[in-house]
Every structure is written in C-alpha cells, then in structure tokens.
Amino acid sequence: MVKIYVVDTNVLIQAPYALTSFEDNQVVLPMAVLEELDGLKKAEGEKGANARTAIRLLEMLRIKGDLLEGVLLENGGMLRVEKNFVHVSLPEDLPDEKMDNRILKVCKGLTESKNEQVILVTKDIVLRIKAQMLGIKAEDFHTEQVIDEKESYCGRREVFAPEELFKEFKKKGISVREVYQIDESGKTICPELTENEFVIIKSDQSLKKTQLGRVEGGHIKKLEFRKSSPYGITPRNVGQYFLQEALMQPASKAPLVIVKGMAGTSKTFYSLAVGLEKILNHPSGEYRRILICRPNAQFDDDIGFLPGSEQEKISPLMRPIVDNLEQLIDSNEEERYRDEDELRGKLDEIFSRGIIQTEALNYIRGRSLDRTYLIIDEAQNMTPNQAKGIITRAGKDTKIILLGDPNQIDRPFLDERTNGLSYAAQHMRGSSLCWQITLTAEECERSPLAADAIKRL
Predict the structure, then answer these.
(1) Residue range 285-331, pLDDT digits in tens
(2) Domains and CATH numbers, the chain
(3) pTM
(4) Side by side, which strands form the sheet with 256-261?
C-alpha cells in the first residue's frame, strides 16, 4: 500500500537528502515548508547550507516536471507540493497563522480526502503530539538514526585466553581465534572482534592475570604506549590506557579517534595533554597546532555583530578548555592558583604563539586542515551532516578527535540516536583508520563526588 509522507521543514534542515528516503511512496511538501525554507536560505552555518541544498534539489525536480502535479523520484517515489487545504478546520486553540498548524491542516485534509495512509514526518516532538491529538499518524525521521546507545559499539571487550598463549602475549600477540568469552549459559563462544577494538585479556587459569591489547589484522597486539606519560599525565584506569593508546598513535595510523564517556572521565583533559606532549615536550613537527572547536548551538548561528573579535565572542564557550589547560600547565595543585597573573601569562603565551587555537565550528566548513591536532569537544551536539563535514576536512597528517557524551545533548531536534557523535561512531566502526573507546562511569576521575553523582543522578 502506497503511503503519503508529509515532511516538516526541520527534517530538511537536518537532512536535506530526506526527500529521497521514502522508497516508492508519495512525499508531500506543504507550501508552509517552502516558505520556511525560503526564510532560512540566507542563514549562517549548517542551517542555511542545508536549506539551500534542499531548495536546489527542488529546483532540479521542478525542471523535470510540475511539482504541484508530482514529479517522479529516482527511487520510484513521487514528490509534490501541496497548496490546498487552507480552509480545513482545526480546534480553536490551534491558530491558523502558526506554520506548524498549517502543516497539520495539510495532513488532516489529505487524511480526509485520500484512501492512502498519511504520515507526518517531523523532528518536533510537540508537533507529533499535536498530530496524535488530531488522529494523524506522526513519526520521527528514522533514516539517520543509529542503534540504541545500550547496544552501540563501545570499542572494548573482555576475553579469556589459554594460559600458555597468555604468557607469550607480549612477544607474539594472540590470534583473535584463540580468545573466547563465556555466555550466560556457561557456553564458550568465540567473539567477533572489530578492527582496532581494545581488549582486556584474562588468563583462563588465573583471573588476576590481565593484559591489555588491541585488534589489528586478525591478531591482538600489546599496547605500544602503555608506559607513556604525555605531558606528565599517567593513566589511572583501563579506559585511560586505551584512550592514551589511541591519542598517542600518529595521524598516519589513527587519523580519527572517537571517545564517548560521561562527564569527569578526562576525555578533554587527556586529549589536550597528548596534544601538548606532541607539540611542546617533543616537537617533532608531527602537528603544527592544536585546533579546538565546541559545537554548541551558538556555533551554528551567526556569531553576531556585537563588538569584539570572533575569539572574544566564543571565549565563554571555551572556558572548559581553559580550565583543563590550567591543570595541565601547572600540575602543582597547592601552588597553581597562588599567582593568578603568572598562570594567566602562561596560558596567554600558548594562545599567542598559535600552539592552541579555538574556532567556531561553522568556520571549519570548506577548509582543508593539514598537520593539525583537531579536538571537537561536546561532539554530541553536532548533526550527522556536521560530523561528516568535519571528518572530510581532514588534510594530510591531521588527527581528528571527537569527544562527547551522547546522553548530554543541548541541541534541539537531536537525541542519543541522531547526533553526529553517535552517527560517526556507528558508521566508522571497523575502519582501520578509526579508533574508538567508551569510558565508563567507574572511570570518572574528576572527584569522588562527581563519580558518585554520575552513578546516582
């Protein structure tokens, strides 16, 4: 049975390709959606870019035929613009002048005049609730959704190995076919390990014996940087050993690192420590600079016309970065804040020399970044399209580090299954160029209170 999908503007703003994602069904754009796209086409950042992309696609279809009558899509479906049903009545508490209610009118009119099933596709939860109240079926745009966070890839696994192989691990490694897990029924199973997946290996003769390794080419190999202390920082838990390994690897071997974890698990702190180690402590020329972005909602909008440079406008959003740098630059907790001017001078020197640069996310678009240690903090606030745009900006010898917590999203229309961090993690899984690790609540190192709050709140 052919279905009629009525698409809301916010779907196209997040995924302009959505018009071609409904197989051989009918796609309907209310006239209100065209008006909203027109109003957004000059907007800054991804919002404006996606609006223009959607408009260009509509222009291509207009050339092929009459959008009011319907134009065939390559996937066998049909797209048309709906200008009717302006006189369809809604409850008095849903005023006609609101764009969302104009879309509901189209849905209600189609439902009453057609025999096909009409489905409203919108990322606006409130609009989906309104639709249900009117008896209209509504759903989110599912094409870009990843699997549930509880089932997602975490980049680490715990396995058992025979004692005789365990002893030779550091010299020879272990084949992925030689390790095993035990399921709930007590049965031995051979796990399907992913390329670059980190592994905690336990001896089957003594559970107190453990080794840490990583999957590469069908073998589990020992960590190369286990004894390293980047910028004087030493790993405090298993997750940080794995994180250090991924960050310390050169861009030629690990150009993309994706790190997920709750607040306080030292994602940003450790990433900065490794960057400073590579550029200041051992300046081999591997990277030219550390570039840091935090894709908060403000970064996708025009930064405005208020006085001040771009750096001055985004500096409040970069305060968490400065907090981490203060701890790294002066590791003596008792003396660190006794002379605030001296500490500020050390930070200013790092920024004035261009060792660390901060930038608004939307200004990365269109650039090619060479020999850059690029940290995207709070990456869960990126859209999938932004994640793709960032990763494809990687130039020669650039390392991209995506950091974030998929459960702490501040951006409208994104959730734990549709954000750019989760999208990149799922689609880059198994790539030899992508290393991933999820830090657990037990690995919080901020403070005893922070660790306890993560578990309880």
Answers:
(1) 899 999 999 876 443 444 454 455 556 556 666 788 888 888 888 76
(2) 3-139 (3.40.50.1010), 146-222 (2.30.130), 239-456 (3.40.50.300)
(3) 0.80
(4) 356-358, 289-293, 372-376, 399-404, 256-261, 434-439
